[in-house]
Each structure stands twice: as structure tokens, then as C-alpha cells.
Specification:
The protein is an alpha+beta fold and 76 residues long. It contains 2 helices and 4 strands; from the N terminus they run βαββαβ. It has one domain: ACT domain (Alpha-Beta Plaits), CATH 3.30.70. 26% of the residues lie in helices and 45% in strands. Strands 2-3-1-4 form a 4-stranded antiparallel beta sheet, covered by helices on one side.
Length: 76
């Protein structure tokens, strides 16, 4: 089952790498990626698929929300 995470963040050096790395280390496969940037803010949309059925997308969304420069995380 694929889920879509939308992350609003402040663009900074290494921010995108930190977010993608966290998603992969938490047991998800990145299936799609899109980014929009407008001045001092940006939005990253990541389509992810869990490596096993026991993974919960709400947990990885909370963990992303704790990263430096992340302002908001939503998922569907």
C-alpha cells in the first residue's frame, strides 16, 4: 500500500537528504518524489511503500516532524 507524505519545511543545506534518509531507515521504499520551492519555504511530497505490513505511516510522519527545519507533515 502506497502512502503520500507532504512535508512543509524551510530549505536548508542537507534538509532533503535528512528527510529521505529517515524515511528509508524507517523501513519504507521511496516510490515517488516531488518538490516545490517558493522563497523561504518549500514542500516535499514523497510517495512511500512500507517494506513490511507492520509499518505505520503516522509513526514516520511524527518522526519527520521532529527534524530540524520541518514545519508541518501531513499524509494520505
Amino acid at each position: 500500500m502506497t502512502a503520500r507524505l507532504t512535508i512543509d519545511f524551510t530549505p536548508a543545506e542537507g534538509a532533503v537528504i535528512r528527510m529521505i534518509g529517515l524515511v528509508e531507515r524507517r523501513g519504507y521504499i521511496v516510490r515517488g518524489l516531488a518538490m516545490n520551492e517558493a522563497g523561504e519555504s518549500a514542500s516535499l511530497t514523497i510517495e512511500v511503500e512500507p517494506r513490511d505490513a507492520g509499518r505505520r505511516v503516522d509513526v514516520v510522519a511524527q518522526q519527520l516532524g521532529r527534524l530540524v527545519d520541518v514545519n508541518k507533515v501531513s499524509f494520505a
